Amino acid sequence: MRRMAVLLPFLLLAQALRLATTTSVYDSGLLDRLLPAFTQATGVKVGVVAVGTGQALALAERKDADAVLVHAPDLEAQYRKRGFLAEGYCLAKNRFLLVGPQEDPAGVREAKDVLEAMRRVASAKAPFVSRGDRSGTHLKELALWEKAGIRPGPPWYLESGAGMGQTLVLAAEKRAYTLSDLATYLTVGKKRGLSPLYDRDDPLLLNQYSVYVVPGSPRLEEARKLRDFLASEEAVRRMLGLQVEGQPLFQPLKGRCLFPVNGSR
To answer: Is 47 helix (H, G, I), strand (E, B) or coil?
Structure first.
């Protein structure tokens, strides 16, 4: 049962700190481990809207969020440069992986690197489900196709227009491939019978989650309190406690960024 991490329209969040975050963070249960402890420590209630990173950043631009927790470094840099994000803190990392049906009709398991894996999917015209929502995962997927020299399209390339959990469910139903973050794969995709077909240490598949405050938001001080709590040792301990079969879903970065964020520490 979700407790503090409740998906609500912003009209209902008038009395709460507004956190716009990714569906992968929401679906994994990370916020359930962090936000109740934050509220207990500070008295600040948090209302969460879980959307793709692109949508979360658009909410920040409109001042419809007080803080954001996102994972698309290149897109974040654009919003920082325009003054819509500040005081970035590198919170955690995991990795992206290619998942799909156990039988692996495209032979992704045998690929020497992730770009060859993408080319194998395209060459086989094997079904692939994209999020298609300008999320951090979608932007990473598009970057991989571009680096692989592929322009994916119908009929084998499908777009869900949905969050990571729903996209994994659709991929399982279609016996299709998709790109997932590790946390949502372990909490959703694995249970649906999808297999981790390309899951290796690869710099192209690094996945960094960062938290920012939104300058000029009406709850800027509360947003700073949330940022500080997420940087605390208590938050680190709670994050490491979120595991599936003994595997942590997120590895705390403690401000040690894989990709730079303005004002990081």
So the answer is: strand
d(CA 206, CA 93) in angstroms, rounded, equals: 7
Asked whether the beta carbons of 250 and 210 are under 8 A apart, the reply is no
Around Cβ 200, how many Cβ atoms within 10 Å?
Answer: 13
Instruction: Report pLDDT digits (tens) over 125-176.
Output: 999 999 999 999 999 999 999 999 999 999 999 999 999 999 999 999 999 9
**Under-50 pLDDT residues of the chain:** 1-12, 263-265
Distance CA 219, CA 212 (A): 13
User: How many of the other CB atoms lie within 10 Å of CB of 204?
Assistant: 13
Q: Length of the chain, please?
A: 265
Cβ–Cβ contacts within 10 Å for residue 74, how many? 11
Place of tokens 């631009």: 61
Spatial neighbors of 238 by CB under 8 A, at least 6 apart, are 33, 34, 37
pTM over 0.85: yes
Reduce the DSSP state of residue 166 to 3 states and report it: helix
Nearest to 152 by CA among 175, 118, 184, 191: 118
**Computed over its alpha carbons, how large is the radius of gyration of the chain?**
18
242 contacts 29 by C-beta, under 8 angstroms: yes
Q: Using CA of residue 125, residue 130, residue 132, residue 135, what is the dihedral sign?
A: negative
Rounded to whole angstroms, the Cα distance separating 160 from 106 reads: 21
Cβ atoms of residues 160 and 131 within 8 Å: yes
